[in-house]
Amino acid sequence: MEQRSKNKLIKLLEKTLERLSSIEMLDYKTLIEEAFGESSEDNDADDLRQAEGGEPEPVFGEIPKWEQISEIKGLSLCRDFLTPDQQSTLISSILQEGWFTDASHNQAMRFGDLPAWANELSTCIRELIEYSNYDLESMELSSEMDGQDCIFPSKLINREPLFNQLIANSYQPGEGICAHVDLMRFEDGIALISLESSCVMHFSRVVDEAATNDNRIEPKIPLYLTPGSLLLISGEARYHWQHEINRKPGFQIWDGQEIVQKRRTSITLRKLCTSE
Ligand SMILES: O=C(O)CCC(=O)C(=O)O
Ligand SMILES: [Fe+2]
C-alpha cells in the first residue's frame, strides 16, 4: 500500500476508534458479535496471517460489500450483514418476545422504546453505515462512493434515535406484502432485515396518473433478499417507488427457478416524523 494511503487509513482508524471508544464500542465486528453472537468463521485466521508476516485484516473485519440497484436510486443491499449464527440469535430474541406464539398473529409493531436487541441492531446499522460511507480521500462522511450515491443520506446518520419504530413480520409460505410506499409519517431512511426464507421483493415506480397520459406499464424491478441481508431504502427509492413481496405461486422466481418457500421473518426499522 502506498505510504500516503497508509497514513490516511491510520488517521481514519484513529478517528474512528476515538469516536467508538467514547461510546464504549470497539468495532463493528465486535459490536455485532456481542449483540448477535460469535461468527462461526475461523477467528484464528487473522493471527495466523499476521504471524506469517502477511497484512493484518482491517480493524472492522471484512469490508462489507454493498450492492446498489442501477435502476433505483436510494436502494443499498448488504447481503452479509448477519452471519448464520447471528441470524439464529436474532430469531431467538424475536421469538422470545412472544409476538408470534398464536398462529393468527403475523405482525408486531413497537413505537418509542424498542427492545434491547432492536437497539443493538440499530447501533450495528449505524456503525456499518458510518464505516461504509466514510470517504478515505476526504476523511469525511461522503455523499458519493466511487461515483455512486452513498448508501444512506449522511444527514440522517446522526439523528437520535436512528430508529424508533419497529415492525416484525412473520410470513408463512404464500404470504407476503402488497405494493406500498411506507407511510409519510415516517422519515426518510428505512432499514429492512431479512431472516429465514429468501424472497424476491419487487419495486414499481409510483406514477402520478393525473399528470401523465402514458399508459405503458413499466416492468417491475426484482430484488433478491437473502437471509441475514440488510436493505437500506432512502430518497427516490423510499418516496417514488413502491415495494411488494408477492409469494403466490409464479411470483417468486429467481434465476429461472421458483424459490422454495419457508417461513420468512423480517424486521423493519424506521423513525417517526417529529411534529413541529
Ligand atoms: O417484509 C419485508 O421485507 C418488507 C416489510 C415492509 O415493507 C414494511 O414493513 O413496510
Ligand atoms: Fe414497506
UniProtKB/TrEMBL annotation:
Residues 38-60 are annotated as: Disordered. GO terms for cellular component: mitochondrial matrix. Residues 162-273 form the Fe2OG dioxygenase domain. It comes from the Eukaryota. InterPro entries: AlkB-like (IPR027450), AlkB-like_sf (IPR037151), ALKBH7-like (IPR032870), Oxoglu/Fe-dep_dioxygenase_dom (IPR005123). SUPFAM superfamilies: Clavaminate synthase-like. GO terms for biological process: DNA damage response; fatty acid metabolic process. PROSITE patterns: FE2OG_OXY. Belongs to the alkB family. This is Fe2OG dioxygenase domain-containing protein. It comes from Mikania micrantha.
